């Protein structure tokens, strides 16, 4: 499915025929159309009918998934290409490539966004789901779903980008709507979090752009494969410029994935944003950031793998350690649930970075190491979204948002308690959360095969540290209620909150929350029973192209 566009040269003597593969670009295109449809529908829907905005968003996400089916069996499809030079042997270079790597990450991004839309329904919809007493309620549905779909369109495009300009544009298309989503919370905390996120993100983007400009100046190329070729045949006089550009570019992406020391924005931003938006940042935004890092490091900067490999190994060790240690402190101190998940997500970013630290030599081993990060990202999306889904549901009745509020959740909401326990055990890497265990083992295998034994030891120690706060939270779910708590009631719940006691004494939750938790739980069980669904990416040849 292609279309040809004839581009005349400046002298009119020659023409360049550009083939556009509409099937390859269908996922981001469908998301962009859905975003515009939501914005237009918001003009005509009033009152209770605005609930349809969320369903339009879900329909747009579902439509964007459909092209992935034929793309999966169509091999690598490229579009927006520039021809090579037969004289010098330079190959064709493309700006958008739909490869196995692209499809895996696009599936994770779109599926995660669908769960976030479900979690956002009570926040954006009119009654009977909306609750004006809750700080996350009253968010304008039209603006929110437009921003979310626009951000996902940027993330999906980023996974397919193969030149530095497209990477930056896609990254900013994802980030700019996210700033506004954070600020949609009605209290001052949301505006403060949005401002902090915006200022730090702008600074990181400036660093990223400066690094990219240096790489372009040194190599004269923007396409990732041509940048790599330029670095291999670099003039010695500009090697320092290229090395500086590579370092700054990686630093810019390190901010997006919340790697230490570029992580300071995460806890306050997650805590200040509406909880579904925090889930979006934790999974969709972070996965897109890692996609960019994988592409830049694995393709463009492959010749410098012997330099950035040890640097990212140190970064991975710091990120794991800081994330886990501070998470333990939060669990034993303020005990804020969202803040604890924020520090946990930082630690999880460290695990994803571990395979990067195994790169050595000229980067020939990257095809065997970096797919472990892709597999971990897919599993991380499921278990972290599931945990945020339960936190969102419980937060409707326990607005303090503390880990201690989950005490005796088994008596009030048995299904939520078992689901939360499963997700926490997945994050800890303990049975029955086998998908988390398999993901960590996969990363261990990559680091051991890469010969970075010290990094494997650091990761093992951090996994043990992480067990503390995950197990403390899990134990609270099944602990007996405090004295004086009515049977089936939630300690600290709002009087007349959205949950209501059923005949069994358990609290009901809005249907979208139940569906989101059920989807994450079902997929988590499936990946625990059949991990090869995700781990098969480890055997895909040429995952990064």
UniProtKB/TrEMBL annotation:
Its EC number is 7.1.1.-. Pfam families: Proton_antipo_M. Belongs to the complex I subunit 2 family. Keywords: Cell membrane, Membrane, NAD, Quinone, Translocase, Transmembrane, Transmembrane helix, Transport. This is NADH-quinone oxidoreductase subunit N. Coiled coil: none annotated. NDH-1 is composed of 14 different subunits. Subunits NuoA, H, J, K, L, M, N constitute the membrane sector of the complex. Residues 161-465 form the NADH:quinone oxidoreductase/Mrp antiporter transmembrane domain. NDH-1 shuttles electrons from NADH, via FMN and iron-sulfur (Fe-S) centers, to quinones in the respiratory chain. The immediate electron acceptor for the enzyme in this species is believed to be a menaquinone. Couples the redox reaction to proton translocation (for every two electrons transferred, four hydrogen ions are translocated across the cytoplasmic membrane), and thus conserves the redox energy in a proton gradient. It comes from Streptodolium elevatio. It is a multi-pass membrane protein. It is found in: Cell membrane; Endomembrane system; Membrane.
